[in-house]
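Quick start: read one record
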Amino acid sequence: MNDVTIAFVFRERQTPTIASLKQIIETTTEPHDMIVFDDASPPEMAHTLREMAAKHGFMLLRNDTQTPPNHQRNACFEHVKTPYVVFIDNDVTVEPGWLDALVTCAKETGAALVSPLYLETIAGKTRIHMFGGQVTTKTDDGEPAFDERHFFAHERVEDNEQILVRSETGLVEFHAVLVETQILRDFGGLDPDLLSVAEHADLSVRVLQAGRKIIREPSSRITYHIPARLEPEDKAYFQQRWSETWNETSCNRLAVAHGVPAQDERIQMVFRWGRMHRQRASLRFPTLRRVLGKTVFDKIMRRYIKPWEVKSNRRRFPHGAPAQAVSKQPAMAEAA
């Protein structure tokens, strides 16, 4: 039996799927199982995924309506039989040896979670996206409060090579992360009510509370590809992924799950990040932003564009269900 299963899921767009999956398959030479979740892709993409599944022998699951990422991951996890699973998104590429480095690290350290060095690329420039971080749900005085911090964010790799070493950390992200199968079984899977934001923070907190280690492994490197602009065919998917309903549901669930008031400033910051991420990608005014500057531009977005965009989003996506309607995960069918 192989040691690890790769679970490939859709993150916020559909168009990168085929190129990302092909690159991961071609680059990953280590023995592994693989499960791919096809999240309501259009017919041509669905056909290509079926052809790839037949050629490469991976399991293909599909849902015909858009599915939150944690639901996709849980659907994949139901089929995992290996000691480790690596969840990976459909908008990343990997470097040779990435998978072996994660598995070796887990075996050598006993870690429940292992994160690679997350890189990011946009407009041809590559930087560190994140290398470890910290998330807490209480202050030093024991008062409930949420706080999340990312280390090395947007810094240059070459400026930090000497200090990018294997070490314990407090936070992973889902761009790619190795998870020990048993601990996720003990948790009953990932929280299905975290529909958009904070899934990574929730998992990290739960692992640390269980007394287990999270390790960051710099010899495993993956790159998250940030689009300069959304393709037209990705806009509807992106809007639902970061919709007000899904963001609000996720933040409320984060608060309840970890005993933090929903109006906690840092939880509200998470919610505002989801909103601004959706608005910036959906409504791009590059010339106006350059003229006004980021600070003024963002104030205009919050004051004027936000109310319009929320109303527009609700008209376009009336199926954006409240928490109680989406907490039960839909049954996922294996693609024919």
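Confidence is low (pLDDT under 50) at residues 306-331.
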